[in-house]
Amino acid sequence: MTSKLSPGNISNMEATKRKHYTQMNDAETAAIIREVRKHSYTLGEHAIDRMNQKNVLQGQINAMLGYGKVVECHNNIGNEIRVLMRGKVAGKWCNAVISLTTKKIVTTWWNELNDHHKTLDKTQYRWTVDLKTVI
After folding, report:
1. Are 100 and 3 contacting, i.e. CB atoms less than 8 angstroms apart?
2. Domain count, the chain
3. pLDDT of 67-92, one tens digit each?
4. Reduced to 3 DSSP states, what percent helix, strand and coil does the chain have, rounded to the nearest 5?
5. Residue 2 forms part of a structural domain
């Protein structure tokens, strides 16, 4: 599997290598979900820091990865593919960025259920690749 993606500030990622779920077809989303769910993931150092700051438990992340939905896919650093997943846990949205390349949880955080990202700048998502070819 060739893969790519970047750590750090998502808003600064290269737009040409970001794809939002609204731009994915059903087959791409299904391929990502299959890939996410067939692996276990270790915690990266940043993820551990964020879990402590945000009071996110590894079990909550693992549960969310089992039923959560794809929000974005990124390919911005080297050959790393990262996926942002989101699912309802404990009355909030549990979010996690995972690396399909390194099999690590990169970062995690909570959003309130009424947070629908209405200010999302969709011009930041211009990756036109068929994700089935890179997953």
Report:
1. yes
2. 1
3. 999 999 999 877 899 999 999 999 99
4. 35, 30, 35
5. no
